[in-house]
Please model this.
Amino acid sequence: MNLKLNFHPEFCQDTLCHSDTALRCGLDNRCPPDLLHNLGRLSVLLGDIRQSLKLPAGALKINSGFRAEVLNAKVGGVPHSQHCLGLAADVVCPEFGCAYELAAAIAQLPCEFDQLILEFGKWVHVSIAPFDQIPRRECLSIFSKDEGYLEGIVKR
Model:
């Protein structure tokens, strides 16, 4: 696959691969070359979201972007997480509002996300579909592992 790598300047590879946990634990969290096209497409989606919501530069904060498998296990991520493929980021935007408000606003945008998940009322997981798949625009909420995923962006 010979795709042009295109990153939004604000959501560069270094930003999407940064992990305090990886640094603290001495883990390599660089995105492998064969997944960089995914990370670039995710970067563009995040830039589109920031622009569509008219957020100032730096307002949309990345809590977690790409995760190497070892890091994903360390932070308790689900096996086969979209993060490990460079397809997902967890974001917050205190300037915009709480995680619910951010998720509800993103859900209304015409952007082509694959999944939008309000996670534990604290952050928003946003992902892109793999290159050869149509984005599902699936909206979910999760508040506890016992309860599991709920359809839609749910306010609690």
Summary: The chain has a mean pLDDT of 95. Helices lie at 13-17, 20-25, 36-52, 69-74, 99-108. The first helix runs from residue 13 to 17.
